[in-house]
Amino acid sequence: MYSEAPGTMTQAEIKLCSLLLQEHFGEIVEKIGVHLIRTGSQPLRIIVRDTKTSLDQVKKALCVLIHHNLVIYRVHKRSVVEYEAQCSRVLRMLRYPRYIYTTKTLYSDTGELIVEELLLNGKMTMSAVVKKVADRLTETMEDGKTMDYAEVSNAFMRLADTHFVQRCPLVPAPGSSDPEPPPLAPTLVINERDMYLVPKLNLIGKGKRRRSSDEDAAGEPKAKKPKCPDDKEPIPDDGIYWQVNLERFHQHFCNQAIVSAVANRMDQIFKSLPVGYNISKQVLDQYLTLLADDPLEFIGKSGDSGGGMYVINLHKALASLATATLESVIQERFGSRCARIFRLVLQKKYLEQKQVEDFAMIPAKEAKDMLYKMLSENFISLQEIPKTPDHAPSRTFYLYTVNVLSAARMLLHRCYKSIANLIERRQFETKENKRLLEKSQRVEAIIASMQATGAEEVQLQEIEEMITAPERQQLETLKRNVNK
Amino acid sequence: MAGNRGRGRAAFTFNIEAVGFSRGDKLPDVVLKPPPLFPDTDFKAVPLRTGEDEEYMLALKQELRETVKRMPYFIEAPEEKQDNIERYSKRYMKVYKEEWIPVDPKSKMAKDAYRGSSLINSADVLKKIEELEKRGDGERSDEENEDKEGGKVKDEDGEDDSDNSEEEEYDEEEQEEENDYINSYFDNGDDFYADSDDNMDEATY
Q1: Is pTM, for the whole model, over 0.95?
Q2: Cα(B174)–Cα(B159) distance, rounded to whole angstroms?
Q3: Does A397 touch chain B (CB under 8 A)?
Q4: I want to staple A90 with a disulfide (CB 3.0 to 4.6 A). Which of A17, A48, A128, A336 is the partner?
């Protein structure tokens, strides 16, 4: 899980969480959520008091947050239930499009919609998911065709098998001889084995198309239309809820990144091999040896059993990727000379000012300037090594070094800040141009309705001209900026 | 630190060359104001990545932004407009949203309320439509009609879909409060925000 101390969230991250919550759930939920992120865990009454919101609203907000796995609760001390927000989980909302798109590439449209529904709704029963996805897919199919529940169920099972979706922890079943009163707040448990166990459902049916022409066009009261028969059926898997397993997606992304990095590397090696080789055992051996000897250390050789055991060094691989990202950022922001210095310090671990100038072959003044620029942005840090116990500056070594972990964290924090700034900017732009956007929408709607009733070309043109050319230009720019 | 402080101001305590400039060089001006809001950069930013994947994800993002606003989890702040002015937009631009109420299955009141509320809501909606139909017909365009009907069907479907889903998870949560709160909580979906402050006096800490 994502528990962390409240103090570790930076202002920029809190701001970003606030913007995300606001966009997804509205202002009330945002207020409660941000309050919890700032203050750590709190009981219900304190939340009500400190946010000056009504009890009902706080309850509803908490329900929404808990339902979406953004807030957890636990019994604290003896009779107080406290709620805690998971800030990093809130930030994962930024990745929703990526999760959905990844599922599309792996499990096609059916899988994509399953994950989308689960992400939008937090937790759902399998039958609910299957029904909803079947309906949605049916809408997009040709007239007369429908999506079978069985196909959706299969896709769901595949997702469960590969652990992309998992069961939510449950309220433990009370023992029959349990004399104690139920606890204030249940501790939800789930068995490792059960987490991916798909319930045996007999879901038969097809997706339903929601057609507005099916409704009574004469405007008769809807009470005459009979309710859909399956609304009254009991839900067979009531109580078994599913959620998206974000960690599994993260694993997948890691693997993807490593594979593509190695593929790039392989291309370089491949080009230096003679043409016309068939991949035989010897070539495979060669490749593996090359990879193992590669300075990136992605693959290591761990023993010779079976002709040589190779292992992927995940830790090193990810560290290399992080470093490569840092190098590229330096190059783009400060220039290639700076990048050269950075790579040098990285390689030699600790360097003195003079050594930097010598190794990089860059004049002293320039080198100093660049080092200080990088220092001021915290990509590089200074390590003091005193020669004498009194730490006198004239008798202390000052060494430049790169702390990859902290530099990477700083970069991440900067990214979050950028995202927050961009979202604010987009909201600002949208608000400023609200009038224009609404006008354009109305015009489009009028045009559409007139086309439907077969209006003349001339009338259409007249209406289009309601938006003047400069306004149109403004609209275009706005659309471009907002969409990105 | 007792050092060479008393002895003559000309000597610095550290090797000045190491810092970056030798004696006699012009020192940079003292900066008296905060750095500029948008400093000039020597290097332009790298363009955003575009490709089939990114375009798809961009479209998804926009779609999601719109979709979440219509979900029952999006809680609108109650508007405190003055009710004496009858507004045109209020009459014709109502968006029917599904009501998502986590139901406590143990409370009998809640069960009755839930069954009642699904019927009440659709009956309410029907009545409103009939009223509006009787009033002014000329101003309404076709799209408003379709909006209402589409929304209504969504409403009915949504009611049945989402109200069952949260029964088990929230029962303990509701139980931790005194029962008075629960009773007033589920009486009427429409008066959700209205009677929230009545019981606040009892909560003393």
Answers
A1: no
A2: 21
A3: no
A4: A17
